[in-house]
Amino acid sequence: MSAARKHTALPKAQILIEALPWLTRHNGKIVVIKFGGNAMIDEDLKAAFAQDVVFLRQAGLRPVVVHGGGPQIKAQLAKEGLVSEFKAGLRVTTPEAMDIVRMVLAGQVQRELVGLLNQHGPLAVGMTGEDAHTITATQHKPEIEGELVDIGRVGEITSIDTGAIEALLADGRIPVISSIARSADDGHVYNINADTAAAALAAALGAETLMVLTDVEGLYADWPNSDEVISRLTVSELEKLLPELSSGMVPKMEGCLHAVRGGVPTARVLDGRVPHSILLEIFTDQGIGTMVLPDPQPGADQPGTDRPDAPQGGAQ
Ligand SMILES: Nc1ncnc2c1ncn2[C@@H]1O[C@H](COP(=O)(O)OP(=O)(O)O)[C@@H](O)[C@H]1O
Ligand SMILES: CC(=O)N[C@@H](CCC(=O)OP(=O)(O)O)C(=O)O
Which residues does the annotated region (Disordered) include (predicted)? Predict the structure, then answer.
């Protein structure tokens, strides 16, 4: 009887052992996770996301959550009879819309995530980029067909102050950050795309990795004609691809590029519809989604394993 019990438990031990080199490698490291609006509308997935983030924290990593809420903002704008329009992939944000963006992100989405995480203990603390000058911005005017266009209170990040986040991490907390910035030039606030905010924070925090959860498997090579996912690419390869990308993938991949160019060793786009996608990515040898890597240094060995980020000694 006891021998049979041992036998059935063996696969569990193997799973834990597979995680060991990854646990060792990531111990104490900051991981910035962007939780996307579309990946966060399913209750079970949200609960699994919270479990994964708490698991990372208890396994010795230092997760920082940056969240979006595009679908929730869209729904609230519709309720209030306000139009929801995007230009250059960014929401046109009138002062009235800004009030709603702020209320939905900081008052609803962030509160809900903090609540889910804190079901596991007194861990998560919510804040927005306004707090303690975490994210400062000026007005962003995207260039559309050669002209700079005014899209309202949409911000371009000018500086990041990581002090408040670092204090929370040092206290063992999980910061949960809404993508709103304080203004550098007036007393108001700016709406920031959450992928852009997550990437800027990952670079400023010196994160080990940026993980962007979304509602597709990763970056498709020829979207929407094929579902072939690009499993990894270098920043130079990504830079060449950027002009061909459309809609929500643009800020995501620009964010990954910015983070890796800013010194973050890897940035990944993951399928947030897969339960526990974060754990699969961080603690298993296979990995999923799309990984962005720095360009190889001249003369350096090319990565030989399936996971170029594999821990020293190789994942078995
Ligand atoms: N090359 C591509 N690969 C994958 N998805 C793409 C690509 N180009 C555009 N997309 C679109 O980008 C969407 C993801 O962006 P978005 O909807 O803003 O996500 P989120 O709400 O998670 O921030 C996908 O659902 C897909 O419709
Ligand atoms: C300027 C801008 O477009 N801001 C975004 C902020 C939220 C966001 O990015 O949410 P997702 O990650 O769910 O798309 C917006 O208003 O929708």
Answer: 290-316
